[in-house]
């Protein structure tokens, strides 16, 4: 391994992550022959095969899996060193790798903007996926922090709640139930329902409540996008259960209304999580502290506006 270079290790990590020389070459802006040569030289330095090919797909050998784990540890330590040195210099610079479930797109970019302005030396990689995809990334420790609302049960993690994430029943403004109070949950069985796709944390929480109440709703559509569901509701295709944050942090919309249904809202929290025992980088810790501070400031402003509106209407 003395002949191995950091460049070769980086190329190997990207090939292993994609399972493809072609896709690795695209990410690294290299030619495919160059990527192949780097992996061959690294294989020679290790003295054992790192990949085996089945059809068009590459699979890691036992030696390859061990090397991949080692590579990621090396890169994490180097990132940590770089950011620690920057911290010694009184700077905040480096890379923040953030992954979050799809619903967070309604508020995380709003938080990232001021963060990037405050720390212009920090580059942000923001991955958005559904719950299953995020858990897969978490299990491979591909990112610094993960934001989701349903904690994974089978992984050893550290987690911190930072914001409420209530799930509410959304309907068009002119829905017949729009002005009713304490609507029995069993009334929902008469409504055409629009559901998130399987693998969504929102769908899992909703289905759990329906199962507990012994009701089966009539699913008209399954959609993988909150925006598509909102447009389908506005178009009169049915009602749905989504995070109140799909209406923005303020929870308001001029085309959708929240139905007052028994059992709702489903009380959940947004969590920032990471693998247990992982030491957060200087940049990740900086973002985490900023997240708590900024969410507290925004929610305080929203609550203040709500109280003022209620006072004026009273």
What does this structure look like?
This protein is α/β, with parallel strands linked by helices. 44% of the residues lie in helices and 22% in strands. The protein contains nine helices and twelve strands. α1 packs across α3 and α2 (21-28) crosses α3 (32-46). The N and C termini lie far apart (75 Å). Residues 302-314 have low confidence and may be disordered.
What does the average pLDDT come to? 86
Residues in helix, %? 40-55%
| Coarse shape | elongated
Q: Compute the gyration radius: what is it?
A: 24 Å
The end-to-end span amounts to 75 Å
Helix-strand sequence: HHHEEHEHEHEEEEHEHEEEH
User: In total, how many beta strands?
Assistant: 12
Summing up helix and strand content along with how strands pair, one would put the structural category as alpha/beta
Can you give me a brief rundown of this structure?
The chain is of the alpha/beta class and 314 residues long. It has helices at 6-18, 21-28, 32-46, 62-88, 108-118, 131-139, 201-213, 226-234, 282-313, and strands spanning 51-54, 57-60, 94-101, 122-129, 145-148, 157-164, 167-172, 192-196, 218-223, 239-243, 256-259, 269-275. Helix 1 crosses helix 2.
Descriptive key words:
5-stranded mixed beta sheet; 12 strands; alpha/beta
Helix/strand layout:
Elements: H1 6-18, H2 21-28, H3 32-46, E1 51-54, E2 57-60, H4 62-88, E3 94-101, H5 108-118, E4 122-129, H6 131-139, E5 145-148, E6 157-164, E7 167-172, E8 192-196, H7 201-213, E9 218-223, H8 226-234, E10 239-243, E11 256-259, E12 269-275, H9 282-313
Parallel strand pairs: 3-4, 3-5, 8-9, 8-10
Antiparallel strand pairs: 1-2, 5-12, 6-12, 7-10, 7-11
Helix pairs in contact: 1-2, 1-3, 1-4, 2-3
């Amino acid at each position: 391994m003395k002949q191995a270079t950091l460049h070769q290790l980086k190329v190997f990590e990207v090939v292993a992550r994609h399972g493809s020389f072609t896709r690795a070459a695209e990410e690294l802006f290299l030619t495919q022959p160059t990527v192949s040569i780097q992996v061959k030289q690294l294989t020679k330095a290790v003295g054992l095969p790192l990949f085996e090919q089945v059809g068009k797909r590459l699979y890691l050998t036992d030696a390859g899996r061990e090397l991949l784990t080692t590579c990621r540890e090396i890169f994490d330590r180097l990132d940590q060193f770089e950011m620690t040195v920057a911290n010694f210099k009184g700077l905040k610079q480096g890379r923040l790798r953030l992954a979050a479930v799809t619903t967070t797109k309604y508020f995380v970019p709003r938080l990232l903007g001021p963060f990037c302005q405050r720390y212009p030396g920090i580059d942000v990689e923001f991955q958005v996926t559904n719950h299953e995809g995020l858990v897969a990334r978490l299990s491979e420790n591909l990112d610094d922090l993960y934001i989701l609302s349903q904690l994974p049960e089978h992984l050893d993690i550290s987690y911190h709640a930072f914001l409420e994430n209530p799930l509410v029943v959304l309907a068009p403004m002119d829905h017949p139930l729009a002005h009713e109070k304490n609507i029995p949950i069993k009334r929902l069985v008469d409504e055409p329902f629009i559901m998130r796709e399987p693998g969504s944390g929102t769908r899992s929480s909703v289905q759990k409540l329906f199962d507990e109440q012994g009701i089966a709703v009539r699913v008209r559509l399954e959609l993988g996008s909150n925006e598509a569901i909102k447009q389908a509701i506005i178009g009169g295709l049915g009602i749905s259960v989504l995070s109140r944050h799909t209406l923005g942090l303020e929870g308001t919309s001029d085309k959708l209304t929240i139905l007052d249904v028994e059992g709702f809202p489903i009380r959940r929290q947004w969590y920032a999580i990471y693998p247990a025992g992982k030491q957060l980088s200087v940049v990740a810790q900086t973002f985490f502290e900023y997240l708590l501070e900024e969410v507290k400031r925004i929610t305080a402003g929203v609550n203040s506006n709500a109280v003022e509106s209620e006072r004026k209407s009273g």
